[in-house]
Amino acid sequence: MQYQTSASASDRRLEPSLSVPGLVALRDAITVYMRGQPADRRLRQSVRLLCDHAQRRHQRVEELLVALKDVWWSFPEVQRASRDAGTLRTLLNRIVSMCIEQFYAND
């Protein structure tokens, strides 16, 4: 029994800290948003994937947000839109708020 517990804890450490499907969905939502199209549903879906993954890994919301902010400016979609830095910061703040709401809604 102890081996299985250790193995699953080890598996969680090897898993990416952010959900890969969540990041793909987020990148898609960013592209739609930067085109000026409605992206709320896509943003919420990506946030749900990110939060669900974080909770399965027993992460705190703070850990999720730090990891998200660490990768944010490396997204090609964000780099291409860097001239709109204010818009990107506003979007990131909106996503952070959505993450906090979703994370605690899952409790």
Keywords, separated by commas or semicolons:
single chain, about 110 residues, mainly alpha
What features would you describe in this structure?
With 107 residues, this protein is mainly alpha-helical. Helices cover 78% and strands 0% of the residues. The chain contains six helices and no strands. Helix 2 packs antiparallel against helix 3, helix 3 packs across helix 6 and helix 4 runs antiparallel to helix 6. It starts with a helix and ends with a helix. The N terminus is likely disordered.
Question: What's the helix and strand layout?
Answer:
Blueprint: H1 2-14, H2 20-34, H3 40-56, H4 61-72, H5 76-80, H6 85-105
Helix pairs in contact: 2-3, 3-6, 4-6
| Terminal CA distance | 28 Å
Please state the structural category. Answer: mainly alpha
Order of helices and strands: HHHHHH
Silhouette: globular
Q: Biggest sheet, in brief?
A: none
**Overall pLDDT:** 86
Low-confidence stretches: 1-12
**Annotation field: number of helices:** 6
Structure in a nutshell:
The chain is mainly alpha-helical and 107 residues long. The chain is built from 6 helices and no strands. Helix 2 runs antiparallel to helix 3 (40-56) and helix 4 runs antiparallel to helix 6.
